[in-house]
Amino acid sequence: MKHRRPTPRFQSGRLPAIAALAVAAISGTALPASAAETSPGESPTSSAPGQATADPSATDQQNLIEKISAEYLAKTHGLSQEDALVRVREQPYHAANARDVARILGSRYTGSYIDQKRGKLVVNVADEDAARQINHHRIETRIVGAKADDLATTRKKAEEKLGAKLQSSYVDQTRGLIVLKVSAGDLDEAKKMLADLKNLDIQPGENVIIAH
C-alpha cells in the first residue's frame, strides 16, 4: 500500500491555505532534489503517461538511499522500518512547509526542525500571534520569545563582547537559542559579561594551548 502525502494546509487570517514544512538531514545523505516534487511512498523517478521511463539505475540508487536513511532513523529514534521509511519520504514535504512558514512569518520565524519520532515539523516562532497564524495538524509551533532579527542582533553583541574569548557561535534551531562556545577557563567570566543578554546558551569549548 502506498503512503500518500496529505494535502498540507494551514490557515493564516486572510492568507490562502498553503503547503508548508522543514528540513532534516537524515544519516548525512541528502535525498535527491527530485524527491521534493513527489509524494511520500511514490518514486521520484516515476513517469507520467506518455513520457519516457526513467533510468532504472536512478530508481535503484534512490531506493538504496531511502533504505539506508530509514535504517538510521529506525535505530536512532526507535521506529519500525515501515514508519522510518515514511519519515524519509516525508522530508521534502516538511522542507516545503518550512519554507512557506518562513515566508509568511518573516522575522517572527526563527527556525525549525523535524521531530522524527512523531513525524511533525516543529517551528520556532516569536510570539503567540505568530503561532496562531499556523494551523496545520502536522506542524507544531514553539514560542521562543524572540524574532530572527532579535537573535541576529543579540548574537552580534555577544560576539563583540566576548572578542578573542569566543571560539564559535551558532543558532540552535531546536531550541531557538544562540550557542556560544568559550574555553572552560573563560566560562564563568563569559557568563558575567553576557548576563544582560537573553536567549543565550554559553558552553565550554576546547581549551586551546598556545605554544610560546
Task: Explain what this protein looks like in three dimensions.
With 212 residues, the protein is an alpha/beta fold. The chain contains five helices and eight strands, in the order ββααββαβαββαβ. The strands form three sheets. It has a three-stranded mixed sheet. Strands 6-7-8 form a three-stranded mixed sheet, with helices on one face. A hairpin with a 4-residue loop joins β3 and β4. The longest helix is centred in the middle third of the chain and has 25 residues, at 81-105.
Describe the structure in brief.
This protein is of the alpha/beta class.
List keywords for this structure.
3-stranded mixed β-sheet; globular; alpha/beta; single chain; 212 residues; 5 helices
Write the layout of secondary structure elements.
Layout: E1 10-12, E2 15-18, H1 56-77, H2 81-105, E3 109-115, E4 120-125, H3 128-132, E5 139-143, H4 148-162, E6 166-172, E7 177-182, H5 187-193, E8 200-204
Parallel strand pairs: 4-5, 7-8
Antiparallel strand pairs: 1-2, 3-4, 6-7
Helix pairs in contact: 1-2
**Helix and strand composition category:** alpha/beta
How much helix is in the residues? 25-40%
Low-confidence stretches: 1-48
Q: With helices defined by DSSP (H or I, 4 residues minimum), what is the helix count?
A: 5
Backbone CA Rg: 21 Å
Amino- and carboxy-terminal Cα gap? 67 Å
The chain-level mean pLDDT equals 78
Residues in β-strands, percent? 15-25%
Helix-strand sequence: EEHHEEHEHEEHE
Task: Let me know the number of strands.
Answer: 8
Strands side by side in the biggest sheet: 3-4-5
